[in-house]
From TrEMBL:
Residues 7-132 form the SGNH hydrolase-type esterase domain. It comes from Mytilus galloprovincialis. InterPro entries: SGNH_hydro (IPR013830), SGNH_hydro_sf (IPR036514). Gene3D superfamilies: SGNH hydrolase. This is SGNH hydrolase-type esterase domain-containing protein. Pfam families: Lipase_GDSL_2 (PF13472).
């Protein structure tokens, strides 16, 4: 991804992302893409607290960059935690605060209702390279994050375990924060 800087947050949740946003100079960014994994769900964080963190993230962004585009993406499913509650919160906050919501769940579920084992590692938590490619193609429907190279999609291989990330674009430079 051209003009991309990547920062890793291991085991992050919505509180960690909010903290990162609070400590960044956001004034030149125009697009914010916030993707959380299931760490809030797997750690059984209070849903009201998780919702408050999303609202705080939106407030932080809007105070600094009034006309910014904000996209909240659903958590991909995982075997060890029910992410439905977090995804419900994401949809509710997106609608209430007039930001975009990217639905991701169905792209990782087979017709029989089970997780797609080609997209989710055996641990049932992390995305495989194929799962990451699926997620990036979903991102591409809203914001171009991949480039075509010799008829194949070029991906940053460090993104194979997407759990929490947010993307920020500043004057042609994209900053993405992803776990390993």
């Amino acid at each position: 991804m051209k003009n991309t800087a990547v920062k890793t947050i291991r085991g992050a949740n919505t509180s960690h992302i909010r903290h990162e946003l609070e400590n960044m100079d956001l004034k030149d960014f125009k697009t914010f893409f916030i993707q959380v994994g299931g760490n809030d769900a797997s750690n059984k964080r209070d849903p009201e607290l998780v919702e408050c963190e999303f609202v705080n993230m939106i407030d932080i962004i809007r105070k600094t960059t009034r006309n910014a585009r904000i996209i909240l993406a659903e958590c991909p499913p995982r075997r060890d935690a029910n992410v439905k509650i977090v995804n419900h919160i994401i949809g509710k906050v997106a609608e209430s605060y007039d930001v975009e919501c990217l639905q991701t769940v169905q792209s990782f579920i087979r017709q029989n209702g089970h997780l797609n084992s080609e997209q989710i590692w055996r641990d049932g938590i992390h995305l495989t390279d194929r799962g990451t490619a699926t997620l990036l193609r979903l991102y591409d429907t809203l914001v171009k994050v991949t480039k075509e190279k010799s008829d194949t999609t070029s991906l940053n291989q460090n993104n194979s375990h997407v759990g929490v990330c947010f993307f920020l674009w500043r004057r042609g430079t994209q900053l993405s924060i992803l776990p390993p």
